Amino acid sequence: PLVVEKKVPFFAPFTGADTIRKQNEFVYTVRATYADEIEKIINFWGNLGSTQVTVLHYDDTVGKQNFETVANVLKKFNRTPVSVAIKRNADITDANVRDVIASDPNVLVVTTLYAPAAQMIKRLKAAHRATMVTSLSFAGASQLAKALGPDATGVSVAITVPTPRSQGVPVVRECTEAWTAAGFKDPMTVTAIESCIAAKVLVEGMKRAGREVTRASLHRALSGLGRYDAAGYVVDFKPNFRHGGSHVGMALLRPNGEVRE
């Protein structure tokens, strides 16, 4: 409501939830949707014959929507996923672990943040339950890899931007140089790449807004941005469609914290 009242662009929220796309004309997203990610994940595993799927999700509107999306995509493989719902801001419980083990999945699709995701994966591995695990980008690929450490082996993540290792992509190289120039010592994360790309797109909007940038001029410029290639990452905004990103990839996590496509 405040965004509408003040008529200020709300740019690049870190979410792929459909709810954010059903807000108002001042909301602009740069990343693909969770539905896009889920379709990529399920088609990847389904085409390999791994269609016995369990979904770890939050017991709220977005979490249930993610589960329903998995269920809809799985229909093409004539399978139904198993739901394991957890509370937000709470640790994984013994009952949650038992539920996943009892479902005996080929693939565990994780749609939570990295902390409960890492807890579940660690506990499954400690119980010697070998199952493939793929997480939505919401967990934060780099953060999840760091939290898992040696347990990262065999875990994959959907990503909505290229990884920091993709130095052949000009915008990744540009962002890495900016990261280093800013004095950061830690390796650049996938989330940082996403933030850098979003900033690059926003700056392009500001350039097109004219010398005196106002909320109104920036709103007009972003709405009319059209197809913009941010040096290897393409967004496409239109007057009646302000959700520009569609990139979805799959990456493997490494025990050393790396994220590799």
TrEMBL record:
It comes from the Bacteria. Keywords: Signal. Residues 2-244 form the Leucine-binding protein domain. Coiled coil: none annotated. It holds the Pfam family Peripla_BP_6. InterPro entries: Leu-bd, Peripla_BP_I. The keyword Signal applies. SUPFAM superfamilies: Periplasmic binding protein-like I. Signal peptide: none annotated. Belongs to the leucine-binding protein family. This is Leucine-binding protein domain-containing protein. The lineage of its organism: Bacteria, Pseudomonadati, Pseudomonadota, Betaproteobacteria, Burkholderiales.
